[in-house]
Amino acid sequence: MPYHERPTPVAGAVLWRRSVGAAPELTRILPDGCLDLLWDGRRLFVAGPDTAARRHQSEAGASYVGLRFSGGTGPALLGVPADEVRDQTPNLEELWPSRQARLLAERVAENPEAALEAWAIECAGCSEVDPLGPQVLGLAAAGTPIAVMAERLGLSPRHLYRRCLPLFGYGPRRLARVLRLGRAVGEVRMGLPLAQVAAGCGYVDQAHLSREMRALAKTTPGGLLRELAS
Questions:
Q1: DSSP 138-203
Q2: SS3 225
Q3: Whole-number Å distance between alpha carbons of 69 and 49
Q4: In the prediction, which pLDDT does 38 show?
Q5: Rounded (10°) angle between helices 98-110 and 112-124
Q6: Chain segment 161-216, per-residue pLDDT in tens
Q7: Which of 8, 71, 168, 182 could bridge to 134 as Cys pair (CB 3.0-4.6 Å)?
Q8: What stretches of the chain adopt beta strand conformation (E)?
Q9: What is the pLDDT of residue 171?
Q10: Could you give all domains of the chain from N- to C-terminal order, each with its CATH number?
């Protein structure tokens, strides 16, 4: 399988693996409101939350193993605020003491999937995830208006925004847009008509969906369809 993922015993953490075929691949990585810890066979690095799509060139035969963290789990386990690594992919040794990062990299090099999952389980036992993260994630995924979200959480909109930065890398409004785009892309992959996708995902109309896709996915619906078909 070129891509596979599975849940871990740690809430908000998914373990995934991706393999590249015999030819180099240029892939579009869409924003998802998550933070990842990845091993590519040579280095252990963090992929911070993206504000918009980016292109990644993979070498032929490359293999990636990673932990994807949602709902503020990643910043808690890694000890790194999400907004400090937003739109960045720093090596772990740039964020941790070099010896600590090197020891984990050595463990991961021996057995990437087992070591990453074991590390996450170990850290989850001594880390405290901000309960606001999963709450905001659920409300944003449901398309809750920001004012309503803030009221339900007992915060002002400005305070909510500040609390979201270290958890997601950006505020609740962009998070909601990113999650809505993810739903729309999933339905586009299923072959649903764009007008139906727009209506079902809460866009005003198909033109609104197209504008959001250009802003966040850096392509058009037609362009995305062609990429998925290639």
A1: HHHHTT--HHHHHHHHT--HHHHHHHHHHHHSS-HHHHHHHHHHHHHHHHHHTT--HHHHHHHTT-
A2: helix
A3: 10
A4: 98
A5: 130
A6: 999 999 999 999 999 999 999 999 999 988 899 999 999 999 999 999 999 999 99
A7: 71
A8: 3-7, 13-19, 25-29, 35-39, 44-47, 54-58, 63-69
A9: 97
A10: 3-124 (no CATH), 132-229 (1.10.10.60)
pLDDT of residue 222: 86
Indicate the pTM of the whole model.
Answer: 0.93
Hey, what are 35's tokens? 């933070």
d(CA 138, CA 144) in angstroms, rounded, equals 9
What lies within 8 Å, CB to CB, of 23 at 6+ separation is 60
Q: What is the pLDDT, as a whole number, of residue 1? A: 58
Inter-residue contact 92 to 101 (CB < 8 Å):
yes
Buried-exposed string 8-35: b where 16+ CB fall within 10 A, e elsewhere: bebebbbbbbbebeeeeeeeeebbbbbb
Intervals of the chain under pLDDT 50: none
Residue 57 burial (CB < 10 Å; 0-12/13-18/19+)?
exposed
b/e map of 169-197 (b: 16 or more CB within 10 Å)? bbbbbbbbbbbbbbebbebbeeeeebeeb
Q: How many residues does the chain have?
A: 230
> Are 39 and 205 a contacting pair, CB within 8 Å?
no
Classified as helix, coil or strand, 2 is: coil
Tokens for 86? 């937003």
- Kindly compute the dihedral angle of the four CA atoms of residues 2, 210, 170, 26, in this order, to the nearest 10 degrees: 30
